[in-house]
Amino acid sequence: MKILVVDDSRAMRALIRRTLRGSRYDEADIVEAQNGREALDSIRESQPDLVLANFNMPEMSGMELLEQVHDDGLEVAFGFITSDDSTANVERARQAGARFVIGKPFTRQDLRRAVNEATAATRNSP
Amino acid sequence: MSAEIPTAKLQEITKNVWSMVLGFRIQPVRFDADKAGSQEFVLGKVTISGTWQGAVTLGCSTGLARRAAAAMFGKLPAEADADEIRDALGELTNMVGGNYKTLLKGDCKLSVPNVMDTVPFVAVNPAPPEHEWFECEGGMVLVNVAKGSPR
Description:
The complex is a heterodimer of chains A (126) and B (151).
Chain A: E1 2-6, H1 10-20, E2 29-33, H2 36-45, E3 50-53, H3 62-71, E4 77-82, H4 87-95, E5 100-103, H5 108-124
Parallel strand pairs in A: 1-2, 1-3, 3-4, 4-5
Helix pairs in contact in A: 2-3
Chain B: H1 7-22, E1 27-29, H2 33-36, E2 40-50, E3 54-61, H3 62-73, H4 82-101, E4 108-110, E5 114-120, E6 132-136, E7 139-147
Antiparallel strand pairs in B: 1-6, 2-3, 2-4, 2-5, 3-7, 6-7
Helix pairs in contact in B: 1-4, 3-4
């Protein structure tokens, strides 16, 4: 399994990576991008199974990334991890096809549960 | 502090971020210029624009900022470099500001964080007495919400 973590904060990417470690994602190939534009290149190059993206980033936001992925016709499971999980943002993300939105700060359980559900849904989709 | 959200809520957000992300307990304290005056701080700021306009500033004393960065990067404090300290403080500011924004009514946008390091006490902006102060792991944390166009 390949998971792409997209956040402009290196500290947050490290935290997400550590949270996934020691779970069933120990063996996953976890790659990183620091903004939506870098992530888009990575997704086009080697389609990951799951993208975990921040909402608010320079260059290209997480939402712009998701919209561009759809425009490209790419099928990638997408989840947001954001400090800005306002009702409006959660609704917008859901409508755009995100599997989940987790607020920062998150617990280990929150993240692992959301990732488990998103990857299970991907495996079960036709 | 000039905002519609009660100060207690801002304190709760700050404590929550510090305990959940870093595993550090922070305790609100009265501002004490004698105690804070000799320290230097790392300051992060995010602005909020839209139906509510203002800025959220989070800072901490430099030693504590190093320990916070070490906790986020999973390394020893002595191993955390200046970029990592800036990055960690920026992300902590982003979380406090983002959580604060979710409490505001209307349509608002959060900026990416801007971080200044080794700011002497006398240059802390907004002025130190306008912040909420906390003690944590022998260091100091300060947070402020300022309504209006960012200074």
